[in-house]
Design goal:
By secondary structure, the chain is of the alpha+beta class. The chain contains 8 helices and 11 strands. About 35% of the residues lie in helices and about 25% in strands. The structure holds adenosine-5'-diphosphate and magnesium ion (MG).
Amino acid sequence: MRKEVSSVRNPKIDEIFRVAKDEERNFLYEHEAKKLFSLYEMPVTKIHVAETEDDAVKAANKIGYPIVLKIVSPQILHKSDAGGVILGVEDDQGIRDGFNMIIKNAKVYNANAEITGILVQEMAPKGTEIIVGSTTDPTFGPTLMFGLGGIFVEILKDVSFRVAPIDIIDATEMIEEIKAVKILDGARGMPPSHKPTLAEILYKTSNMLMECPEIKELDMNPILAYPDTALIVDARIIM
Ligand code: ADP
Ligand code: MG
């Protein structure tokens, strides 16, 4: 008898996409995308979706202050545009105020916005902003992009591209290829960024894209890089 090829996807991955499809969403919430990344062993912030103020306070204490609060709504893809991100919350009262403020802001932004919950997450320390993205090319399939955040991507277009799948050497080359690579090496007294972690994120994202044809577009913006590691602090996935 022929042996089965062991290319069965983790059922937890199927579940994430199934929930989104059942709710007729064409995108994954940030927390769903981060759960997906965790299944590929990529580093993400600690998260909890709270439905009540009390639940948010409990989660904040479990995660530890300072905390970031964000809107979770099927109608809101760009959270800051909707006043849906509050950084650096320091205490329980701040969680309660922030919880209500975000809901208020969301309603002002879009009166029809449904609120799924409030995402409570660990506040990542300051680091070098990195962006990893992907789009699906009609001819070549999933394509990966790497760059530094802010003006480097938006104004200087200093990015590198590869068609997936890539191996860890390709990933390293993608990083070395950008013009601003010296910033990652710690030029001008900037703290260096841990390239091996960034290469691993690129490589694992490539694996994920190959296993998840549901992903049409992906955006990790930003990833914060540190001398010894990196952390994905925001994520968007379009299906
Ligand atoms: P948007 O949906 O508007 O892109 P983000 O989740 O990216 O929302 O949040 C906006 C900005 O807030 C980010 O670009 C980042 O600078 C900061 N930020 C978001 N989450 C965190 C976090 N967990 N720790 C530190 N900074 C964060
Ligand atoms: Mg973002």
